[in-house]
Amino acid sequence: MSKLPENTKRGENPVKLVWLITLLSFSVGVFMVYLVWSTLTGLRTERENLFELLETFNSIQAELESGIAKQKSEVADLLETKIAHDSSKENLRLLNLIGQYRQVVSSHELINSFDRLEQNIKSLFTVKEKLTWWASAYNRTIPRIPPARKKITDSLNRLYETVDQAEGQLRIERAAKIRELRHTPGEINISAINEIAASNVFSLIRRDITDLLQLNDRLHIITEADNLADLKDNKIRTLLARLRLNTQLYAGEKSPVKIKLNSLLDDYERALFGQGYSIDDDHQLINLGHDGEYGLVQDQLKMVAEKNTLRKEAYITYDKIEAALAAISSQTDKIAQYEVTKVENILAQTWRTMVIILLVTSIIYAMLAYEIITAAKLQVKAIEDSNIELEEMASELKKSEERLHRLSQDLFTVQENERKRISLELHDELGQAMAALKLQVGSITRRLGSDSTEDLINVCEEMSKNINQIIENVRRLSRDLSPVVLDDLGLQAAIEYLVNNFSKIYNVEIKYKYKDINHFFNED
């Protein structure tokens, strides 16, 4: 078979291209699967991180807002003088939440906002501590006002009753004196008349006590400290000075009523201004003692003012906290949006990469398909050329069969000639030798008893030589038909033996050159 042309060799293995494109397809498929898997894994991870981040944001914001709402509720309760339990753990938890929020967001832009939020939360804790102290003081002060007020009212009522009794007694005495004057004959006692006509000081005291009751009622409706001081240092002090003047004992006067009234006024003043109070007439001031109704009312006004101040401070702190939370919430929304955009960008980048890989793979597939088509065309041409060569080989094979047929006929002829040769040798050589041997045996038989032993021995020796010659001829024929050396030593040795034997038999000098040919032929 002749060799294929050079252009055929270029596509002599399209199977390799098919395996190549299959391997490439498998590799691209594996790569695409890996890319899709890694992309989906990355997207899942990014989305899980995003959802976890958003959940963390929402959770912390909700807990933070809940904590701040709880702080607001506690502040509202304190403003209503409801003292809550110890909230130090809640305060610490709120600060820890801010720390967690700061750590989760981890944005440099929000450092100031978190600092402001933490500072405002601490300010709220301070306000709450102030309100706790205020509520405690308020709860201690306010319950003492009603008993003090009752004590004042009781003192004024006792003053009023004492004045009523004194005034009634005075009326009885005046009526008795009038009756006595009416039944006394003679001149009219001017001094007795003047005594009866003298003004009733108890009426003045009754009026002042009534004014004190009214001023005491006003004490509980005043809402400004200046008005309260004016009531104390001007109106109440003036009334008390007038009452003291009206209940003053003159030299040598012994009036149990006035003594009692002064004692009741002392009780009233202590109940109103407190133990250890003093009246400064030079500066027209009343210096308060402790546990007086006026001092309690004054403390109440201060506490109300302090309550308003603390409420305003708490509301301002609330506004600052909400502003800081709004800034943080806005920034966290931006961070969440950035994470969402990053996930979308990763997805878009992955799609672009997959499209590029698809395009490159399509181009490679097109090139390989072109190579396969070209190789197929070359293979078709090579097959056509091979068919022509096969036809030529078939023609040569037919001729070879004819030659083999003639060769087989020649071989048969050679075999027949060899048989004839062997037959002739057996007939001419071996047959004649055996006939001669038969004659010699017959000759010996006839000569037995007549010839001498010596002559018979010579004839037997001659006959023995002929027998040896016959044996040698038989062996030669056997060796010619199937040389033992061929089986034992191989073809090369058998040829050498044949050449040497021929040279000896026919006395012909033969020159023989040989190479080792044993490995060219098998045993058969």
Helix count, DSSP H or I runs of 4 or more residues: 13
Percentage beta strand: under 5%
Spatial arrangement of strands, main beta sheet: 1-2
How many β-strand runs? 2
Terminal residue distance: 29 Å
What is the radius of gyration computed over CA atoms, rounded to a whole number of angstroms?
76 Å
Mean pLDDT comes to: 77
Overall, the morphology is: rod-shaped
Q: Please give the share of residues in helix.
A: over 70%
Largest beta-sheet details: 2 strands, antiparallel
The low-confidence runs, each spanning 5 or more residues with pLDDT under 50, are 1-12
Which structural class best describes the helix and strand composition?
mainly alpha
Order of helices and strands: HHHHHHHHHEEHHHH
> What is the count of structural domains?
3
Task: Give the topology.
Blueprint: H1 6-9, H2 14-79, H3 88-105, H4 111-141, H5 145-182, H6 190-197, H7 201-218, H8 225-246, H9 256-273, E1 278-280, E2 285-287, H10 293-447, H11 453-481, H12 484-489, H13 491-506
Antiparallel strand pairs: 1-2
Helix pairs in contact: 2-3, 2-4, 2-10, 3-4, 4-10, 5-7, 5-9, 7-8, 10-11
Question: In words, what does this structure look like?
Answer:
This protein has 3 domains: 6-138 and 305-372, no CATH class; 146-301; 482-524, no CATH class. 82% of the residues lie in helices and 1% in strands. It has helices at residues 6-9, 14-79, 88-105, 111-141, 145-182, 190-197, 201-218, 225-246, 256-273, 293-447, 453-481, 484-489, 491-506; strands spanning 278-280, 285-287. The chain has a two-stranded antiparallel ribbon with strand order 1-2. Strand 1 and strand 2 (285-287) form a beta hairpin. Helix 2 runs antiparallel to helix 3. The longest helix has 155 residues, at 293-447. It starts with 5 loop residues before the first helix and ends in an 18-residue tail after the last helix. The relative contact order is 0.08.
